[in-house]
């Protein structure tokens, strides 16, 4: 299947699931309160005519992040190059091609009783079911049903607005990125792995030019609770890997489940195997469904909902589900932003709600990055049965590193653990990664993604009109 076909299929499936989801969740809260007129959105947009070409010096005046982002010292392939894209699956990750150390880490976590033994869900119209198990039970705790666990983030602190955008990077992200840059707005981009692969230019703008935070939104955007443990490894692992290898070695600390669909098992694999914390939201504009057939959401209803929340109580603070998926969703945020400021919200990047870093091993986008030899949690040694004899408590500073940066000396505990671990990684792990790299060597032209984005806008425009 060509990349274009695959992408079309992805967007088609994505749209279909959105329709199903919007149908099953009913009307948007607050839309019935909406009884005043709005000027057509287009007319209220700030003029974009003064925007300068990308390399114009005026951009430096507004630049927040540093172009020379720090790295862990490893010589990663240039983002967008053939060498960079060669190592990743083009679509749904093949569970037989996963790096062995990920599989070992999963098996170790299961053996240690850290991964709840509940079955994958069956998704019926977007709502997961678990046979005879109650989705709201302690055992399952489905986020689709709004079950809360202490370490899953649903709310922001009082007066704080956690800005985040899902589903990028996409060509439709560009106007959003311009707006974020001009207004110096920090935010988190919950990125879909295959979109990073297809849109390296937008990725680079978000990370380097804006200096924004990058978080995980899975490799192919599935209903995660329907996936087996091994399938989850692929969805998390490859997204971690592409972000790690494209940000100078940073390991994301947060992930957001597509459709908000997670549970105890999925959350535990994220946390125990990859060190990822789950971040959800406490308000949903349903902006993503604008223009979808059957959707109740319109630019006016989305705006009305945003206005209500922004002018409403400050406690808890707001984490609003928003997207960089289309022109409409981007417009919704741009329209609402002045109101956020005039209502005194403290706008921070969604994954810095606790004031910490968006990354497990780095101090933000321009701070120190500690080299890690894999994307696994805390770089714990993958307790592969065959390499169990390798010492893991006595750090070796000279062991050859899988990541190729053994010379990058550091003093933190994490660095020490990472170095120790790299000595115990089985050669099977590297073998698996390399063979999958070799079989999928290809170059991603910008054309397929531009076509696909065009299609999405065209379909939205037709349906919406
Ligand atoms: C990530 O970068 C490391 C270091 O350059 C490299 O060994 C590894 O193959 C890269 N991963 C992929 C999937 O390209
Ligand atoms: C959305 O599309 C319209 C029409 O092409 C354009 O005028 C407007 O600037 C776009 N909005 C954003 C945020 O890019
Ligand atoms: C390790 O291997 C032994 C013998 O092959 C097996 O009995 C045991 O269950 C394995 N342990 C793990 C954690 O896989
Ligand atoms: Zn999403």
From TrEMBL:
Transmembrane residue ranges: none
Record region (Disordered): 377-426
Cofactors: Co(2+)
Keywords: Carbohydrate metabolism, Cell membrane, Cell wall biogenesis/degradation, Chitin degradation, Cobalt, Glycoprotein, GPI-anchor, Lipoprotein, Membrane, Polysaccharide degradation, Signal
Region forming the signal peptide: 1-22
Segments of skewed composition (Low complexity): 381-426
The protein's Enzyme Commission number: 3.5.1.41
Record-linked SUPFAM superfamilies: Glycoside hydrolase/deacetylase (SSF88713)
UniProt topology in membrane: Lipid-anchor; GPI-anchor
GO molecular function, one term: chitin deacetylase activity
Intracellular or extracellular location(s): Cell membrane
Superkingdom as given in the UniProt entry: Eukaryota
Gene Ontology CC annotations of this record: plasma membrane; side of membrane
Main location: membrane
Occurrences of domain NodB homology (ranges): 159-348
Principal EC category: hydrolase
Record keyword Lipoprotein present: yes
InterPro entries: Glyco_hydro/deAcase_b/a-brl (IPR011330), NODB_dom (IPR002509), Polysacc_deacetylase_ArnD (IPR050248)
Single Gene Ontology BP annotation: polysaccharide catabolic process
Protein name (Swiss-Prot/TrEMBL): chitin deacetylase
């Amino acid at each position: 299947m060509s990349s274009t076909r695959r992408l079309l299929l992805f967007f088609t499936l994505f749209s279909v699931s959105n329709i199903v989801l919007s149908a099953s969740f009913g009307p948007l809260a607050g839309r019935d309160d909406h009884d005043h007129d709005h000027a057509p959105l287009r007319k209220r947009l700030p003029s974009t005519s003064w925007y300068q070409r990308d390399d114009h010096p005026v951009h430096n005046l507004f630049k927040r992040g540093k172009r020379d982002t720090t790295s862990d010292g490893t010589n990663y392939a240039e983002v967008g190059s053939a060498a960079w894209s060669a190592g990743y699956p083009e679509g749904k990750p093949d569970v037989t091609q996963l790096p062995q150390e990920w599989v070992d880490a999963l098996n170790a976590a299961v053996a240690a009783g850290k991964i709840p033994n509940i079955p994958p869900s069956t998704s019926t119209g977007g709502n997961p079911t678990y046979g005879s198990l109650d989705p709201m039970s302690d055992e399952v705790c489905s986020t689709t049903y709004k079950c809360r666990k202490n370490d899953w983030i649903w709310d922001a602190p009082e007066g704080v607005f956690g800005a985040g955008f899902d589903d990028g990077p996409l060509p439709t992200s560009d106007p959003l990125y311009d707006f974020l840059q001009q207004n110096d707005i920090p935010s988190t981009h919950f990125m879909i792995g295959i979109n990073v692969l297809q849109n390296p230019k937008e990725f680079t703008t978000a990370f380097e030019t804006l200096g924004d935070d990058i978080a995980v939104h899975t490799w192919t955007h599935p209903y995660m609770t329907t996936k087996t443990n091994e399938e989850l490894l692929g969805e998390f692992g490859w997204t971690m890997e592409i972000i790690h290898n494209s940000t100078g070695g940073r390991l994301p600390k947060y992930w957001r489940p597509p459709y908000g669909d997670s549970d105890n098992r999925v959350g535990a694999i994220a946390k125990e195997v990859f060190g990822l914390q789950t971040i959800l939201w406490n308000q949903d504009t349903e902006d993503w469904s604008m223009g979808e057939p059957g959707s109740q959401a319109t630019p006016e209803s989305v705006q009305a909902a945003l206005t209500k929340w922004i002018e409403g109580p400050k406690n808890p603070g707001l984490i609003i589900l928003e997207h960089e998926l289309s022109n409409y969703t981007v417009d919704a945020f741009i329209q609402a932003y002045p109101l956020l400021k005039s209502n005194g919200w403290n706008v921070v990047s969604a994954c810095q709600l606790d004031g910490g870093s968006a990354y497990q091993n780095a101090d933000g986008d321009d701070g120190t990055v500690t080299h890690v030899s894999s994307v696994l949690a805390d770089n714990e040694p993958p307790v592969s049965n065959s390499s169990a004899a390798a010492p893991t408590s006595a750090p070796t500073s000279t062991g050859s590193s899988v990541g190729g940066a053994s010379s990058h000396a550091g003093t933190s505990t994490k660095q020490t653990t990472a170095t120790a671990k790299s000595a115990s990684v089985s050669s099977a792990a590297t073998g698996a990664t390399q063979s999958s790299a070799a079989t999928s060597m290809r170059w991603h032209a910008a054309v397929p993604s531009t076509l696909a984005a065009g299609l999405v806008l065209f379909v939205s425009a037709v349906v919406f009109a």
